Amino acid sequence: MIVIIMTLIGAFWGAYLAKKRKGNRLDIAQHAASSAILFCLIGLFATILIARILG
């Protein structure tokens, strides 16, 4: 669940940054994808850490 939420947050954040910097559609898509991957990995490590701590 954390991974999915973090992936969506990353995609929206990346798209927002690309729009703010006046990028075209491909720039927005690339920023959204790369940010989604980064946030997905962060969410994955957070999930593993929480699982190890709690049980």
Helical segment tally? 2
Q: Outline, from the CA principal axes?
A: rod-shaped
Distance between the termini: 17 Å
Biggest β-sheet strands, sense, barrel: none
Poorly predicted spans: none
The chain-level mean pLDDT equals 97
Q: What proportion of the residues form beta strands (DSSP E)?
A: under 5%
Count the beta strands: 0
| Rg from Cα | 13 Å
How many structurally independent domains?
1
State the oligomer. Answer: single chain
In N-to-C order, the SSE pattern is HH
Structural class: mainly alpha
Can you give the helix content as a percent range?
Answer: over 70%
Structural overview:
This protein is mostly helical. It has one domain. It has two helices and no strands. Helix 1 runs antiparallel to helix 2 (25-54). The longest helix has 30 residues, at 25-54. The chain starts with a helix and ends with a helix. The chain crosses the membrane at residues 33-54. Keywords: Membrane, Transmembrane, Transmembrane helix. This is Putative secreted protein with PEP-CTERM sorting signal.
List the helices and strands and how they pair.
Blueprint: H1 2-20, H2 25-54
Helix pairs in contact: 1-2
